[in-house]
Amino acid sequence: MMNYLFAGMIGLSLTFGLLNGRISQVSAAALDGGLDAVKLLLSLCGGLCLWNGMMRIAQESGLTKLMSRWMAPLIKLLFRPIDPHSEAGKLICMNMAANFIGLGNAVTPLGIAAMREMEKYSSNRRYATNSMVMFVVLNTASLQLIPTTTAMLRLAAGSASPMEIVPAVWIASLCSVLSGIAVVLLLNPLFWKPQPSSALDHF
Fold it and tell me: For the whole model, what pTM was predicted?
């Protein structure tokens, strides 16, 4: 899907550039955009490596297992068919922890792995389970304690106080998470059928 979107954006840019006689500006913007992207990537690389390394240490040291025990009541409440101590439960915990400290890049692979594990609890892989829907909403809303990626972007843009947005981020992310959970619970009886509580039902 993303390939089609990017191809469409490029096609529209070239088309309107030709129609308006500004194809040279389009070419210059493409080159400048690529250069800016590389500069931004290099400026963010150090911070992302640091926090991704911290997540890896947490995983290897057993901290994620401890976190899964702490978060077990929350997972049981929001993801009822999922065992908090299962592989899916651990991946959900790690995903929520990565979101909590604002690691957007670390969240994506953990989220994909968690969705694959949760798929085992579904009797029909063509449809998302209630747990998968809730996970997508929480992953998108993401309650953040430390907006790491946003702070690094602000620092790269020359901000003198990149972390001054923290209180606003806390309020906004808390409101988005609570709103997302409320909407899922509200629409659940209308659109989603009960899912099997055991992965064995899939077979």
Answer: 0.59
In our burial notation (b when 16+ CB lie closer than 10 A, e otherwise), range 163-178 reads eeeeeebeeebeebbe
The pair of structure tokens assigned to 61 is 């040291």
Alpha carbons 53 and 101: distance in angstroms, whole number: 13
60: which 2 tokens? 């290897």
What tens-digit pLDDT sequence spans the chain (203 residues)?
A: 678 887 888 888 888 888 888 888 888 887 787 787 787 777 667 766 766 677 678 767 877 667 767 877 888 888 877 877 788 887 888 788 777 766 666 677 778 888 888 888 777 777 778 888 888 888 888 777 777 777 777 887 888 888 888 888 888 888 988 998 888 888 876 554 544 444 434 33
Residue spans of alpha helices (H) in the chain: 2-19, 23-61, 63-70, 72-78, 87-100, 104-118, 130-141, 148-156, 166-191
CA–CA separation, 82 and 108 (whole Å):
20
